């Protein structure tokens, strides 16, 4: 028995999707042009598909799970369950208008033409706000639409904002935030659910590891208490005696986002020779 997983065939999500599987210790025999490949050391079959087609494949039970942008689920798969957020391909779906256009509120879009690849998302948002507009559905290069006179506004993915900038547009409304997620088919079988929970366990360990750093430092014994107060650790920090009397080595795990802040505090509290190491996996 195998778990069938869909990942994007080519595009923004492809590389990171393969990487997270690899970080989970799963090796896939893949020739680039294959549409299907098997894992060598895990009961997993990988299907390479178009991102936009994946919600339907999940619904039909052609695949059991998929790695997909949550923005696509909002557009085409609100009925599908998310098993895990994966933390990559972070972006937002936003409305934008030409830089020179007057824009004060969403009601300025009343009766206007909006170009987008995400019609359902825009429609739902406008309906909520009580605004009616004319939607033009296009599949790519949406940002060019106002410049060629096809639309007054657009709705598309924004990440750095550089595509908007290059096309003389300004972001005016953020509709949603998105990241890659692991979505699940409503038809998944019991056996596949068991494999999925093993996969989820590995994914969580990988993500937790990515979010944390292992730190080691030397601390004079009379300052250990102050230093430990700054360190959460998984249970509590490890304290080992150094060869030199009166000193200890303190080991702990800290969140990578709080990292520089904590390091400064640790130094002030008396820690020296601080080493910071990446964590490959963290089993919680
Ligand atoms: N600039 C970006 N920064 C971060 N994430 C992005 C960006 N553009 C797209 N994404 C995310 O990656 C997903 C795939 O985008 P991509 O442009 O590769 O494929 P697509 O053209 O939407 O889909 P398909 O596979 O059907 O051709 C999007 O649904 C979104 O979640
Ligand atoms: O805010 P930015 O960092 O500029 O990113 C946003 C752009 O990235 C995506 O396009 P992509 O490069 O995937 O091309 P596509 O339109 O062919 O999908 C998206 O459709 C935006 O156009
Ligand atoms: Mg794209």
Provide a descriptive summary of the structure in words.
It is an enzyme of class 2 (transferase). GO terms for molecular function: ATP binding; ATP phosphoribosyltransferase activity; magnesium ion binding. It is a single chain. This protein has helices at residues 14-23, 54-59, 70-76, 119-129, 162-166, 190-210, 224-229, 259-268, and strands at 3-8, 36-38, 44-49, 65-69, 81-85, 91-98, 113-116, 134-137, 153-158, 169-178, 180-184, 212-220, 238-241, 247-255, 272-278. The chain is α/β, with parallel strands linked by helices and 284 residues long. It is flat and about 75 Å long. The strands form 3 sheets. Strands 2-3-1-4-11-5 form a 6-stranded mixed sheet. It is 27% helix and 32% strand. It has 8 helices and 15 strands. The mean pLDDT is 95. The protein folds into 3 domains: 3-89 and 179-209, Periplasmic binding protein-like II (D-Maltodextrin-Binding Protein, domain 2, 3-Layer(aba) Sandwich), CATH 3.40.190.10; 91-177, Periplasmic binding protein-like II (D-Maltodextrin-Binding Protein, domain 2, 3-Layer(aba) Sandwich); 212-278, 2-Layer Sandwich (Alpha-Beta Plaits). 1-O-pyrophosphono-5-O-phosphono-alpha-D-ribofuranose binds at residues 12, 140-141, 143, 156-163.
Give me the CATH fold name of the largest domain: D-Maltodextrin-Binding Protein, domain 2
Q: At the fourth CATH level, what is the homologous superfamily of the largest domain?
A: Periplasmic binding protein-like II
Instruction: Summarize the amount of helix as a percent range.
Output: 25-40%
Q: Any ligands, ions or cofactors bound here, and which?
A: adenosine-5'-triphosphate, 1-O-pyrophosphono-5-O-phosphono-alpha-D-ribofuranose, magnesium ion
Number of domains: 3
- Overall, the morphology is flat
CATH architecture of the largest domain: 3-Layer(aba) Sandwich
Order of helices and strands: EHEEHEHEEEHEEHEEHEHEEHE
Low-pLDDT ranges: none
Q: What amount of the residues lies in strands?
A: 25-35%
State the major sheet: 6 strands, mixed
GO molecular function: ATP binding; ATP phosphoribosyltransferase activity; magnesium ion binding
GO cellular component, one term: cytoplasm
Subcellular location: Cytoplasm
Keywords: Amino-acid biosynthesis, ATP-binding, Cytoplasm, Glycosyltransferase, Histidine biosynthesis, Magnesium, Metal-binding, Nucleotide-binding, Transferase
